[in-house]
Amino acid sequence: MSDLAQTAAQSAQAQADAVIRVENVSKLFRTPSEGTISALQEVSMEIGHSEFVTVVGPSGCGKSTLLKLIAGFSAPSSGRILFQGEEVRGLNTKTGYVPQESKLFPWLTVEENVGFGLDAKRYSRADRERQVSQFINLAGLAGFEKYYPAQLSGGMSKRASIVRALAYEPPVILMDEPFGPLDAQTRMVLQDELLKICERKRQTIVFVTHDLVEAVALADRVVVMTHRPGRIKDIINVTMARPRNIFEIHRQDGFDEAYGRLWNIFRHELMTKAH
Amino acid sequence: MSEQASREPSAVRAAQPAAATGSTAPISVHGVGVTLVRAAIIGGFLLLWELASGRWIEPFLISSPSRIFWSLYAGFRDGDLFQHTWVTFIEIAIGFPIGAFAGISLGYAFGRSRVLAEIFEPIIIALNGIPRTAVAPLFIVWLGIGLWSKVGVVFLLTFFLNFFNTYSGMRQMDHEYVDLANLMGVKGWKLTLKVIFPAISPYVFTGIRTSIPFAVIGAIVGEFVAATEGVGFFIRMSAGIFKTADVFVGIIVLMIMVIVMDKVAEAIEKRALRWQSQTEHIQIQA
Predict the structure, then answer these.
(1) Interface mutation vs chain B, best among A69, A109, A112, A151, most B CBs within 10 Å
(2) Confidence at residue A159, expressed as pLDDT on a 0 to 100 scale
(3) Are residues B88 and B220 in the same domain?
(4) Interchain pair B275, A148: CB under 8 A
(5) B45 & B98 share domain
(6) Minimum-distance CB partner of A143 among B4, B17, B195
(7) At residue B284, does pLDDT exceed 70?
(8) Do B43 and B113 belong to one domain?
């Protein structure tokens, strides 16, 4: 563990300006069929300002649950989550959330969806329009402002869903496997766009995925979680330089090393599960 | 737009619906065939009816299409049918909107407040078990034989259907929309207006449209029980003196009333739900 020192240094630095601190968080669910399920167990982590953190793990490891707790959709069973130093109680309106399915409001046009979060924030009309058109352009949706979500393709809905969360400029964006159901090509295009947006806006992002390549390609740090009950198995630093080229990510310095370490952890997980 | 379309192949798919909404589909051979067969069936039925009347079956039992047509004409020419239609229409025009509004409001309130739902749900379900037309005589006792007893029955029949549809919409609504809106700082009446009502609107419209025929039933039942005017009164009186043609005239007037109301509701629904790719409308038959 030669990079233990580095990890320690990094986490010390992250702790100093941590936007999110997860402290010993556990989450139990009560289900009628299986009794009590422990979705998260004693999870602790810090996420620093303008950091891109991906969370990987097998399905059912509680990665989505972790995001929902940070967003304040539900409360932890024990432990606590600090957001900019304050404990999250109730909805955390300083986060933007990009759900697994796009979940655009189907009764609003693209334009109205993207501007949805701006109404509550007291933007002037001119500011609002500028903001909306800027983000629609950013998502490559210019010309589709008046379309309803039912008229968009999967990739377009996804982009609209992402800029809807970005447009009102919350300090942190939480993304729950946003590119999951897309085909490989669209997925890459969107990853590329997301990277460009983030590198420009210096946005703090927590991104849940089960795709190891995606996890490494996007992240500053990869949080690896174990199968239920979800625990943090390891945190890997990705030292690849930015801006990154997603289409040739394999050739970039640092990718192989990070991916290799990640895969080692998962291989071990798979082996132990098989027995 | 072409630039976007070239960036992503599936964007081409997206461009199509917008282009298609403006123009109507071309008339197909199939469509013409269906219309012709339908017309032939209706025409054949009316012809058979006309022939049967007086030849094989007594006219006072089934009347005939020509007699009905002339009675309809005479009824509106003399003005008394206008009066009856107007009276029934007013009963519905008052009772239906109030009943629908009350049903939708209560359905919404139950959906928002778990405590309210827990307390009142069994009561509402029990009340729903009452065959509502059986209460009509009671309304006559309470509200007299005039307008308001019929308004009461219309209200009762409209209320429950709207309540149940709205409430089930509230329960089946995807709550993630509310969570997302809350997270974006939208709450209170803005949340209701911009998220909850649009989300449940397909259910609300189903409630409204299924309750239209029942509103008319309510008015007619009220008039059957005790009345001095209205289409229900007209039908009952005509049947009493074996003016069978006039009975059919009354039925036709009611049928047209239901169809017109449904068409109006359908047009409003189409406009309100234009964001849906297609609307599903389930008609519950009495």
Answers:
(1) A151
(2) 87
(3) yes
(4) yes
(5) no
(6) B4
(7) no
(8) no
Tell me the β-bridge partners of A86.
A83
| Any domain includes B286 | no
Residue B48 in domain: yes
Task: Give ipTM to 2 decimals.
Answer: 0.82
Number of structural domains chain B divides into = 2
Q: Is there a domain that residue B84 lies in?
A: yes
Residue A187 to residues A86, A159, B6, B31: CA-CA distances in angstroms?
A: 35, 11, 16, 43
Q: pLDDT tens across A40-95, in order?
A: 888 888 898 888 999 998 777 788 888 989 998 888 888 888 888 888 888 888 88
Q: Which two tokens stand for residue A275?
A: 């027995």
Q: Which strands, in side-by-side order, build the sheet including A52-56?
A: A95-98, A172-176, A204-209, A52-56, A221-225, A232-237
The last residue of a domain, from among B57, B75, B97: B57
Name the helix (H) or strand (E) containing A204: strand A204-209
Show the domain range for B35: 28-57
The token duo for A265 is 């952890």
How far is the C-alpha of A53 from the C-alpha of A70, rounded, in Å?
Answer: 13
Of B111, B276, B254, nearest in space to B205 by CA? B276
Structure tokens at A77: 């069973």
Domain match, B38 and B76 both: no
